[in-house]
């Protein structure tokens, strides 16, 4: 009986396998016959994709195709390499995830086949987001998915990685796993996806990407996606793709030629012309007048973000404030992303770490307080709103020196923001409040100084000198606008040479003033005789002096931090130094000191001639090896001299001995010089490496301490999915970081959403409370 049952089960399984094989063959035929040119596909179900993926898509409320999906998915399904470009928020994520799932499905991929697809994203946030979308749409497939973004122990990840079918990660971490060669087996890899590929290159991942790509099987399929097109992207495409199809790239070029903008049509773009020193006032006024909105405020560095967030919190504009930058711990970053996504009335201060790819629902405004380095960054930043056909607004603040140059750059991509003028009645100044806040809180003053320095440095290092004019920065006014008593001293590499060149050419006053500031941010009165220096010498009020005194001791540690590097540099500048040794002075051995009383004797005492005559002639002495002083000519006795041999022999012997000593010393000197040179070079390289790492970590947090969380799938995608009561085949285990309240996302793309005045989330409630306190 049992045998019979067993037999029937086996035949059932065989039949099911056959049905699956037939279904896959049918899918393959449909793909082959599918002609993208004649296609009028509107829905996902019109494409030759499996029922499992279709069900996943439907459950995640994805029904209708977007343009890039309609054009690229069929090509990818046919197995071509693809270079895909489409505007921000146009649905590129699904455009690559669906072909990944389909490829593995048609290959009958199982957990024993190992890694089938590798998806590389430039930032952790984006990687997490892709992973979440994959979990949603892959809920009806049986693949395992994993996320490696750094932060967790590599060993911990390695153990789990061997069971993963689809791996998503940041370039550095993926390479680290490849290097360790434990767990990660890439021999079977079917697909490689590079999302925001040009960003990976901009972030200095070129070598890492090359190393990864070079170690992958050549037979793989590669998909490369980005919202902007650049030379570096084309270069990468040439290197990593074979016989590829470009989707949407020509559209972008054509749209440019036909006058269409590179940004979504649903985006209303505007700019205001604001002097640097008025930016924070303008920003504060903007926030105060948009309290019911969800907005992202972009600033140029982590320090700027930190400073503005901390000070604005104290000013209580009446809306919930958040901040996000690469210097934060990954846990805090993920939490902020999640909270911001769910809130409706909230203001997020951020760096470019969230400029690309991140899909925040329903952002009303993107405000760029600091001008982005180029138009592509502008496009990505504003792309955080007006996504998937929704309305959105953007505002960029341009200083008078940036305005013409940057508008020209934007116009080259057919982006023409409208000029806005701020109503006089709405203008308000927060400078006095900032001064008072910084006065009361030395930590904030320190933050302000750091923010100032990082902004000035960011302008200095910009490549586009037609837009960013370092020499014309109103440094003093800018420092005051942050609430600082003066511009902090800044030392930038190469600054000295610039300074010299500027001096020769009658350097602009701002630059010179900046470089002559002392540590308190005040001008150093190096040469008060010149009119210019006199003008620059600020009159210090009693208040200023009090302010400095109050902060002197508390901030000493911070000042030390700021100036430590400077001090080291300065040390190097001194070519010769006198090294003080601690000589013991015995009081009794010191001569008596008698102070002459009469004027005549005082004069005589100070006269060199008189002093010499009183001491007799100076005698020149030499010191022997034991430190004993001898007169320079100390003659030997004649007998002793003759006994030592002939004068000629003694001369020769002396010369030979000296030559030998000289040679030895010479070798030693050379060795010491070589070692010093090597050490210097090593230190220089070390500093350079650290600088690059710090800069990179600052903006993207890639090299953070391993306290960040990494998320790996359970080894089985269905384990990671939310349980579904009507389907027993799925496990009940929930993915560790699945959003707590998925209902907040439901109907996200439904245009009929009714906006609620009532607070929806804790953040909205916070915002409401802040408003009440603020008013
Ligand atoms: N077919 C679809 N139907 C409904 N919503 C969709 C569809 N495709 C994508 N979306 C939604 O549109 C939004 C933007 O998609 P996605 O993040 O993939 O855009 P993107 O092109 O990658 O943008 P970016 O260039 O900024 O990274 C997301 O919220 C996504 O869920």
Automatic annotation (TrEMBL):
Sections of the chain in a coiled coil: none
Source species of the chain: Henningerozyma blattae (strain ATCC 34711 / CBS 6284 / DSM 70876 / NBRC 10599 / NRRL Y-10934 / UCD 77-7)
Function: RNA helicase.
Comp. bias (Basic and acidic residues): 525-538, 728-742
Catalytic activity: ATP + H2O = ADP + phosphate + H(+)
GO terms under biological process: rRNA processing
Major subcellular site: nucleus
Locus of motif Q motif: 42-70
Parts of the chain that traverse the membrane: none
GO cellular component: small-subunit processome
UniProt domain DEAD-box RNA helicase Q: residue ranges: 42-70
Family: Belongs to the DEAD box helicase family. DDX10/DBP4 subfamily.
Keyword flag Cell division: no
PANTHER family referenced in this protein's UniProt entry, alphabetically: RNA HELICASE (PTHR24031)
EC number(s) stated in the UniProt entry for this protein: 3.6.4.13
Protein name, as recorded: ATP-dependent RNA helicase
InterPro entries per record: DEAD/DEAH_box_helicase_dom (IPR011545), Helicase_ATP-bd (IPR014001), Helicase_C-like (IPR001650), P-loop_NTPase (IPR027417), RNA-helicase_DEAD-box_CS (IPR000629), RNA_helicase_DEAD_Q_motif (IPR014014), SPB4-like_CTE (IPR025313)
Name of the top EC class for this enzyme: hydrolase
GN (gene name): TBLA0D03400
Region (Disordered): 1-21, 515-538, 598-625, 698-752
Pfam families assigned to the protein according to its UniProt record, in alphabetical order: CTE_SPB4, DEAD, Helicase_C
